[in-house]
């Protein structure tokens, strides 16, 4: 570990091979291609976090824990999302349930946390263009922050991405390239383009600045819960959100700001479950087939990170069917008034599955991360609830009122 007194900022990246500080991850003085570690000057971080207690209630509160100078001028107010109790659904599931409503971020998903930090870094290094391969949410998110920062944005999405997730970045002025193939195909094309162009790539696994921003989800859960929850439940596609959330939770425990850490439950769809298969030691293919497009990833870029986080936390994984996801979408709306995209409903279905398997005990305190708004994919939600009932404008009021007697 390098000497913290040498750090220009309270938080910085170091090479895991030689321990030298890095001005730009990926450009190692030692010539290695080793991973990078995010390190903190713990004394300075504690002091600066205390001073930041009156800052806006968004991720700017955690600037001492971020490897950029400032988010001012970039931030859209991402973070600071509600942690809502879910007593009705919790009682149905037999747990003390809270929902981290990250779909209320500016572009409707948790991806805004990482995008703001990535774009802040892009500005610091003088970039003109940023790029991303995405199932949809990260693309929309990056496009918004690029627009706010007057950067050009080139996005690669699979053709079957939901309409709302492709319209959104177009509104922000991004170039959206719908790739004839899967997310993995879109990711491969984005890699080829960014490798040749030198553009900053926000795709999963491409830059540690995404992880640094997403860790704020863990920081918030650590601070907002009255006691450390027994479980934090996260849907998994590439696995980065779960891994980063765990890293944030672990950081707050290491800093002595909370006592202990929760176990992590990672949830995947049965049709696309490579991380679950890796944790369980079962065979896996790169086939993708689920209604939950946000977690429809056959080759996860953060598979090892997610597996390590689950193992370190003493957690586990489960898979759920598309029917269970669809049912959970309707249940969340009916019981708690929360409308989420299918990936989030998978997390709730995963709690039910884990309870049945005995992994989660009755009465456990569980926080489920709702990563995206239901408005991201209304088509799948329609399958859960059906069509509106058609009535004549001349219908007698009494006939309607009788339904509620």
Short description:
Helix content is 40%, strand content 15%. It has 405 residues and is an alpha/beta fold. It has 3 domains: 4-65, no CATH class; 83-108 and 208-385, Rossmann fold; 111-201, Rossmann fold (3-Layer(aba) Sandwich).
Give an overview in words.
The chain contains 14 helices and twelve strands. The chain is of the alpha/beta class and 405 residues long. The protein folds into three domains: 4-65, no CATH class; 83-108 and 208-385, Rossmann fold (3-Layer(aba) Sandwich), CATH 3.40.50.1100; 111-201, 3-Layer(aba) Sandwich (Rossmann fold), CATH 3.40.50.1100. The protein has a six-stranded mixed β-sheet with strand order 3-4-12-9-10-11, with helices on both faces. It has a four-stranded parallel β-sheet with strand order 7-6-5-8, sandwiched between helices. Strands 1-2 form a two-stranded antiparallel sheet. α4 links the parallel β5 (129-133) and β6 (152-158). It is globular and about 75 Å long. The N and C termini lie far apart (69 Å).
Helix and strand arrangement:
Blueprint: E1 11-15, E2 36-40, H1 42-51, E3 83-85, H2 87-93, E4 96-101, H3 111-124, E5 129-133, H4 137-148, E6 152-158, H5 163-171, E7 175-179, H6 183-197, E8 200-201, H7 208-224, E9 231-235, H8 240-254, E10 263-269, H9 274-280, H10 303-313, E11 316-320, H11 322-336, H12 342-357, E12 365-370, H13 378-385, H14 397-401
Parallel strand pairs: 4-12, 5-6, 5-8, 6-7, 9-10, 9-12, 10-11
Antiparallel strand pairs: 1-2, 3-4
